[in-house]
Design a protein that fits this description.
Protein name: UDP-glucose 4-epimerase
Largest sheet: 7 strands, parallel
CATH superfamily: NAD(P)-binding Rossmann-like Domain
Radius of gyration: 19 Å
Strand content: 15-25%
Shape: globular
Oligomer: single chain
Strand order of the largest sheet: 3-2-1-4-5-6-10
Organism: Salipaludibacillus aurantiacus
Number of strands: 12
Number of helices: 10
Low-confidence stretches: none
Order of helices and strands: EHEHEHEHEHEEHEEHEEHEHH
Family: Belongs to the NAD(P)-dependent epimerase/dehydratase family.
Number of domains: 1
InterPro entries: Epimerase_deHydtase, NAD(P)-bd_dom_sf
CATH class: Alpha Beta
Mean pLDDT: 96
Structural class: alpha/beta
């Protein structure tokens, strides 16, 4: 039986990926230290559907406190989804935590995978490494992070490439473009917009709302992980977008349609670190491992709205 490690297994992408792996017959070791960046009870709910699965176990510890070399030694795949997220919180005194969770933890995993039997390691990178984009952006674009968070994700990605070049580690980096859907973090815009609209509370839009984002549905992001595991080229980075690029105010209109309620919008000044636009060119992932997003933004918002209604009993 194939064995996989999923770091951040109680998080948004990690829990959904874990569920997919279990359904496909993998034995999964999840690692999650349940950081307090948002309500831990939500993370615990994320793993409820598979917590007692016979082929799943979870280790509730910080990656930096584990004997990763021993843990990795009998596993075939490593999906490194763990990290401290959030652009706005990465400024100031909190930056050290981002360095620890996003850079140092990745280096520790790479050291553990070095010389092991692991066939493929997948690193969850981010579109934040690019900064703002003025058109469809391919992987050849020179990275220019616009936030400390983006700097840490790019640094970890560079480490992955260095370990591939020097030690032949079979690592693939996936640059996620704004993943959304059920289990999305409560601090992310779509989650907040949907919840506040359902509760008839104001939603906050930073700036004039002219920002655009390339949104990727969670099941498409998970499918990208599975395909990259099987066919991704070691040492490469791939954009994982959803082909659902839209302006923020247009997104709110779709949320109104999905929720059946009118949003109450409040505009506040733009925030440092927020890129104006993101736009993924996913042709490299299409070519190398057949990635093709199938979920529309409208369908994804419907599923996420249903999830949020259940989560908060709305």
């Amino acid at each position: 039986m194939k064995k996989a490690i999923v770091t951040g297994s109680a998080g948004f992408v990690g829990s959904t990926l874990t569920e997919r792996l279990l359904k496909e017959g993998y034995t999964v070791t999840g690692i999650d230290c349940l950081t307090d960046n948002y309500d831990k009870s939500i993370k615990l709910k994320n793993i409820t559907p598979f917590k007692h699965h016979k082929n799943f176990k979870i280790i509730n510890k910080n990656l930096l406190e584990l004997d990763l070399k021993t843990l990795v030694s009998d596993h075939d795949y490593v999906f490194h989804q763990a990290g401290l997220p959030g652009v706005r919180k990465s400024w100031g005194e909190d930056f050290l935590q981002y360095v620890s969770h996003n850079i140092y933890a990745t280096q520790k995993i790479l050291e553990a995978v070095k010389g092991s039997r692991v066939k493929k390691m997948i690193y969850a990178s981010s579109s934040s490494i690019y900064g703002s984009m003025n058109g469809p952006t391919g992987e050849e674009k020179l990275p220019a992070p616009f936030s400390p968070y983006g700097v840490t994700k790019l640094s970890a990605e560079h480490l992955c490439h260095l370990y591939y070049q020097n030690y032949g580690i079979p690592v693939v980096s996936l640059r996620y473009f704004t993943v959304f859907g059920p289990r999305q973090r409560p601090d992310m815009a779509i989650h907040q917009f949907i919840r506040n609209t359902l509760e008839e509370k104001p939603i906050t839009v930073y700036g004039e709302g002219k920002q655009t984002r390339d949104f990727t549905y969670i099941k498409d992001a998970v499918d990208a992980n599975m395909r990259a595991m099987a066919f991704g080229k070691s040492g490469e980075a791939y954009n994982i977008g959803g082909g659902s690029r839209i302006g923020l105010m247009d997104l709110i209109t779709l949320i109104e349609s999905a929720s059946g309620k009118k949003a109450k919008v409040i505009h506040t000044p733009a925030q440092p670190g927020d890129a104006a636009h993101t736009w993924a060119d996913i042709s490299k992932a299409e070519k190398d491992f057949g990635y093709c997003p199938v979920y529309s933004l409208e369908k994804g918002l419907y599923h996420q709205t249903s999830h949020i209604r259940a989560l908060y009993n709305l």
